[in-house]
Each structure stands twice: as C-alpha cells, then as structure tokens.
C-alpha cells in the first residue's frame, strides 16, 4: 500500500478516537450535572441541537473524508 493510504488510515483512526473521546467526556459531564438541558445555552443552539453539536459534526466530517478517500481509490482502480 502507498504512503497516502497509510496516512489516511492514521488520520481516520485519530479522528475517530478523538470523536469517541469527546462523546464520552460530554456524556460524563451530563451525568455529573444531573440535567440534560443547560440553562445558559443560546436559543439558536436549542432550535438546532444536531447541526451545532461539534461531536456530531466531527462524525459527519470523518464520514465525508472517508467517502472521498474510498471514492478516490475506487476511481483509480486500486
């Protein structure tokens, strides 16, 4: 395999690990506060909780990156 493939694999693993870690940290903070809703959250974020959530956006970015890499290698025929 080429250096680009190994580099992509490393980046994907790091991004997935960071995303999983951020998810666990956020879940622990919610458990400690004994509440699922914060009182000081901006109303825009309350209306769009999925679009403005950095954890969910990280999963979307990783998915798009993985799709681009897989499509690139599929198109090259490797």
Give the structure's gist in a few sentences:
The chain is mainly α. The protein contains three helices and no strands.
What does this structure look like?
By secondary structure, the chain is mainly α. It is 76% helix and 0% strand. Helix 1 (3-33) runs antiparallel to helix 3 (54-76). The longest helix is centred in the N-terminal third of the chain and has 31 residues, at 3-33. It is elongated. The model has no long low-confidence stretch (mean pLDDT 78).
Query: How much is the radius of gyration in Å?
Result: 17 Å
Number of strand segments: 0
Structural class by helix and strand composition:
mainly alpha
Mean pLDDT equals 78
What's the total helix number? 3
> What does the largest sheet look like?
none
The helix/strand series, from N terminus to C terminus, equals: HHH
| End-to-end C-alpha gap | 9 Å
Regions with little confidence, pLDDT below 50 for 5+ residues: none
> Overall 3D geometry?
elongated
Q: Give the strand content.
A: under 5%
Could you estimate the helical fraction of the residues in percent?
over 70%
């Amino acid at each position: 395999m080429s250096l680009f493939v190994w580099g992509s694999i490393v980046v994907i693993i790091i991004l997935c690990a960071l995303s999983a870690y951020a998810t666990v940290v956020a879940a622990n903070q919610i458990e400690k506060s004994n509440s699922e809703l914060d009182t000081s959250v901006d109303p825009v974020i309350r209306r769009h909780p999925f679009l403005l959530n950095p954890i969910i956006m990280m999963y979307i970015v990783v998915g798009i990156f993985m799709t681009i890499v897989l499509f690139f290698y599929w198109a090259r025929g490797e």
